[in-house]
Description:
Elements: E1 7-17, E2 22-26, H1 32-36, E3 40-45, E4 48-59, E5 64-68, H2 74-78, E6 84-88, H3 89-94, H4 103-106, E7 110-113, E8 116-126, E9 131-136, E10 142-146, E11 152-156, E12 161-164
Parallel strand pairs: 7-12
Antiparallel strand pairs: 1-2, 1-6, 2-5, 3-4, 3-6, 4-5, 7-8, 8-9, 9-10, 11-12
Amino acid sequence: MKKSSEFISIGKILNFHGVQGEAKLGYSKNREEFLSKLKEVFVQNNNDFVPLEVVRIRFTPKCGIIKFKGIDSINDILEYKNKLVYVKESIAREYLDKDEFLIDELIGMDVYDGEKRVGSVVGVSNNGASDLLSVKTGGEEVHLVPFVKAIVLSVNIKARKVQINNIEGLLS
């Protein structure tokens, strides 16, 4: 049995596609190059991560269409409907750009404006234009901070610190 901490979710099987066992795969925008290089993914079944060999993947404007080895009918793929699709964390890290991070690494990091701690990262989302850090400030409020270079100045994974340019109105 493999531990869940070894794996990173990269998408979700939304439904079947056609009658040959293909599946519609939902995924984050701009990840087509990464997904097209995958040879193996995993689906969680109870506490086990079951490997699936990727035969091919193509992309539509709304989703990916993925075919797995040995899954050749609607009935075969239906058992995976609404399941998350994972890769080993080590594989995901190979494809990160210099200024990219895994979401799990950012959650819980302290957020600073200069030397002043202004909150902590409680989530990461995407609005289609950019990633957004959900930053919880001193109160119970959560503010969305665009993850762009003009605002997020640096991320130090080892120090667990995000340095931002707290422009007027950002955290208020």
